[in-house]
Design a protein that fits this description.
The complex is a heterodimer. Chain A is an all-alpha fold. Chain A has 24 helices and no strands. By secondary structure, chain B is α/β, with parallel strands linked by helices. Chain B has a six-stranded mixed β-sheet, with helices on both faces. The longest helix of chain B has 14 residues. Classes of the chains: A mainly alpha, B alpha/beta.
């Protein structure tokens, strides 16, 4: 039975959409994974000696213990954001002669081996090895390590019980900040108290078995929950949310592109993938705070360009890079409707332009960091409107990947191809390069003027550029339709 | 009139469609039947310029569909659910499509009102997105959208599939009325032989991309088709 499941798992992996992802994404993901693993590994080995050196009068194990509350809560928060619930497509199994309990056990046990559970071990295991090497009692260290492993597994199952519940997330966040505040103000040292608990385990390793009790309770709860979901109307059918009809008739003022703009606004608001990337706008807009508050960067004028392009163009980049893949689900239908392609692209241009101006206006407070910053942002806005918008629309003609709107955005690389990686260069680095060159050659003021002029030229040539881009879209129409009907 | 000449579509070495000549006069209701893989959907996709022909061409009311886009103004179609925009409510979807078909909001409302019985109270005012509707109800919305803006040519791929019996009967009535005055050319494909013989004046049978039968519908047609398919 288990071997059947494992075989399915194997096929699922090799035949899944993600396996077909481009090499670039795999490399980046692999790099992130390796990065975390190495970081943890080095920390695990080095932390003991580091603590010994900087806090010679304290026991490194106790110091680590007093920070474990943070580590565990942070781990839970990380899981909350990143980890997917353990799902297997159970629908086909329900009518087969397979014990339902077995399916549930399989799904749960499988989740125990996820990356999230192994990652932490790269810290705890080397740390324990160092402890034993440094003369700590092996039995105590083993008890401690055993408890840590049990706690990681418990966190795994606790996360599934929390199941994307916002209240629990808030509680975790409160625990994290609360712990920090109590420790900082020496009021009631919560992390320290918890830490003493771990010290106690080291001295009395037998009590590590308490973790086993915790784990089995959580496992049982998960089991009961999943077991109850083994019916079609529970596991498969999702709750149907009531449509929220908002009045978008104000967009009618925008003329013949209004239906598309309405559609795009609804697209952004009503789909998981787009909705969860809305917070990206806040990050993009606040990007400057990260640089301008740091005196190291305030001397580097070129950074202003980067921030300017990014903070006014964050929507342009996030939305624009997947034109026309956003509409991939119903692209065939669009292609049978009676409208000129130019009108469709014009609507996309319009929505991006509006966003750039809006983000610039919202970013006006950046003037606080000096007139230079403000002037560069202004030039960057013009550049975004005149040059980058056209570049990104041009890049869209190479999009050949379907986007499934119902999936969430964080670390979702669906729809991402070489285009998305390559388009970043002309968008960000070209204006930076031009700026640096002119700034060095002539002066800061002229460099700004040059950027603005380039943008202005783009605006003047808008009609011609759009015509050329439209022709490319029309030329690629059939290839796009074909690609968008494939599940990638 | 829709003229098809020397039309073929090949994927690699396999020919999925090969029609030498096929003429569908204006006002005809034309039925396309055939087993899976016969080339019905391929033909419709070619007619809508969603795929490119390997050879030949289709001329829809004097417009070669892969040369000019002007056929879009008088052609309504529904091929499959991918013609729907999942995150819109049916009302919003009709408004969106109506906009391309020269209908304002009031026009759309009057148009939808005519479909009250067909929708059976399951489409309008339900506060549901199209993606959350059942397959049958999605189909109802798609078929209605294909008929918006008084098209001259209507193309429906498998319109009867997934519909409940009552709706199938209502749809047959709608389609018959549509072609009553011989103004609108209707093209449907179906696996249901009795429905298609009831609705269509003419039935063409495709097999592996080739026209094997071309029948003016009569009382004997259903029998003839049944005997052809019962191999």
């Amino acid at each position: 039975m288990i071997s059947h499941f494992l075989k399915l798992e194997w096929k699922y992996f090799f035949r899944s959409a993600s396996f077909g992802k481009s090499i670039g994404i795999k490399l980046v993901m692999g790099f992130f994974g390796l990065y975390f693993i190495t970081m943890f590994l080095f920390m695990g080995i080095g932390v003991f000696y580091g603590l010994k050196k900087f806090f010679p009068e304290q026991d490194p194990l106790m110091v680590v213990n007093s920070f474990l509350l943070y580590a565990i809560t942070a781990d839970l928060i990380f899981r909350y954001i990143m980890q997917k619930l353990p799902l297997m497509n159970i629908q086909p199994f329900l009518t087969l002669p397979i014990n339902k309990n077995k399916i549930v056990h399989y799904v749960l046990v499988k989740s125990s081996f996820s990356f999230f559970n192994t990652m932490n071990l790269f810290f705890y295991i080397p740390f324990s090895v160092v402890l034993i090497k440094e003369g700590y009692a092996a039995s105590g260290v083993f008890g401690w390590l055993f408890l840590m492993i049990l706690l990681i597994q418990s966190a795994n199952f606790l996360n599934f019980l929390i199941n994307k519940n916002n209240k629990a997330f808030a509680a975790l966040f409160a625990l994290l900040t609360g712990g920090f505040l109590t420790q900082h103000y020496q009021f009631f040292d919560l992390p320290g108290t918890i830490g003493h608990g771990f010290d106690f385990i080291y001295h009395n390793p037998i009590y590590a078995l308490l973790g086993l009790a915790l784990l089995s309770v959580l496992y049982r709860l998960n089991f009961n929950q999943l077991r109850g979901l083994m019916y079609l109307d529970e596991a498969v059918s999702q709750k149907v949310k009531e449509a929220n009809a908002s009045d978008l008739s104000w967009t009618d003022k925008l003329g013949d592109v209004a239906p598309f703009i309405k559609n795009d606004l609804r697209l952004m608001w009503r789909n998981k993938r787009t909705k969860s990337s809305i917070w990206m706008l806040a990050i993009g807009l606040g990007y400057g705070l990260f640089f301008y508050t740091n005196p190291m960067y305030t001397k580097m004028d070129v950074m202003f360009v980067l921030v300017g392009i990014f903070s006014t163009g964050t929507f342009l980049i996030n939305f624009g890079q997947f034109i026309p893949a956003w509409d991939s689900g119903y692209y065939k239908m669009l292609m049978t409707q009676n409208f000129k392609y130019e009108r469709y692209l014009k609507s996309k241009f319009m929505i991006m332009t509006i966003s750039v101006v809006l983000l610039f206006v919202l970013g006006i407070p950046y003037v606080y960091f000096g007139w230079k910053v403000f002037a560069v942002h202004f030039a960057a806005m013009i550049y975004n409107i005149g040059v980058n918008s056209h570049v990104i629309l041009y890049g869209g003609t190479f999009n050949r990947k379907k986007i499934n709107l119902d999936q969430k955005a964080a670390f979702n690389f669906q729809g991402t191809g070489a285009v998305q990686w390559l388009i970043g260069f002309p968008l960000m680095f070209l204006p930076m390069g031009i700026f640096v060159l002119v700034n060095w050659w002539v002066s800061f003021e002229i460099a700004i003027v040059v950027l603005g002029l380039l943008g202005f030229m783009g605006v003047v040539l808008h009609k011609k550029l759009m015509q050329a881009i439209t022709n490319l879209y029309i030329k690629n129409k059939h290839a796009m339709i074909h690609a968008f009907t494939q599940e990638n | 009139m829709i003229q098809t000449t020397q039309l073929s579509k090949k994927y690699g070495q396999t020919t999925v469609l090969n029609i030498d000549a096929l003429e569908i006069p204006k006002g005809q209701s034309f039925g396309l039947v055939g087993n899976n893989g016969a080339g019905k959907t391929t033909y419709f996709n070619l007619l809508l310029d969603l795929i490119r022909p390997t050879t030949g061409a289709i001329i829809n009311h004097d417009i070669q569909v892969n040369q000019s886009e002007d056929w879009k103004s008088f052609t309504g179609s529904f091929i499959d659910e991918s013609f729907l925009i999942g995150y819109l409510t049916p009302e919003e979807y009709f408004e969106f499509i109506g906009d391309f078909r020269g209908m304002n909001k009031a026009d759309v409302t009057t148009f939808i009102a005519k479909f009250d019985t067909f929708f059976n109270g399951e489409i309008i005012g339900k506060k549901k997105y199209l993606r959350d509707l059942s397959k049958g109800n999605q189909k109802k919305a798609g078929i209605a959208a294909a008929l918006m803006g008084a098209p001259q040519v209507v193309i429906l791929d498998e319109p009867f599939a997934n519909l409940d019996p009552t709706t199938q009967i209502r749809l047959k009535k709608i389609l018959k009325e549509l072609t009553d005055n011989k103004e609108i050319t209707l093209l449907v494909s179906s696996h249901d032989l009795s429905h298609v013989t009831e609705v269509c004046d003419r039935i063409v049978v495709l097999d592996k991309g080739i026209v094997v039968k071309d029948i003016e519908t009569s009382t004997a047609t259903l029998k003839e088709l049944e005997s052809y398919f019962s191999v």
